[in-house]
Amino acid sequence: MSTPAPFVSPPMAIEKDWIDYNGHLNMAYYNVLFDRCSDEAFEMMGMGLDYAKQRRLTIYTAEVHLCYVRELHLDHKVDVSFQLLDHDDKRLRAYQEIRHVDGWLAATSESLSLHVDMSGPKVAPFPADVLAKVEVMRAAHAALPMPERAGRSIGIRRKTLEPQSDRR
């Protein structure tokens, strides 16, 4: 089976209970959409529900940077992508996008996930069989360009003021 680059979820619908009093998708549910796609990508790498139940190993999210780009509404359908940007023996760095099925960008998410031994819980190296699948996905995704919105930081950009000369 070939590894899609990037991995893209089947179309997802916005659920009625996710709409807030402003009439658009509540901010929390963007994370739900990203998480559902991540779960499918993790399953492809051998780290799904059975992995957690049988091997007592799983993925925890350590950090997320989410950018809201355009509002989503109840009647919208979306695709969510997952691009594995980097990994080591215990961590995954991923970039995701939510796109309306018409193609426009609604949100981006960049995350750092930890591989966890649930008996601790403690961060633990990937088993060799899983690491091999992670490396296959990373190799497939390495051919993709680095997303323009990856690596962003939060800050307030200030316009630099030019010094004013004394006018007499």
From TrEMBL:
Give the InterPro entries listed for this entry. Answer: HotDog_dom_sf
User: Which classification does the entry list for the species?
Assistant: Bacteria, Pseudomonadati, Pseudomonadota, Alphaproteobacteria, Hyphomicrobiales
The entry's keywords: Oxidoreductase
Please name the CDD domains in this protein's record.
4HBT (cd00586)
Q: What class of enzyme is it?
A: oxidoreductase
Name the chain's protein: 3-hydroxyacyl-CoA dehydrogenase
Where would one find the signal peptide in this protein?
none
Give its E.C. classification number. 1.1.1.35
Instruction: Note whether DNA damage occurs among the keywords.
Output: no
Source organism per UniProt: Mesorhizobium escarrei
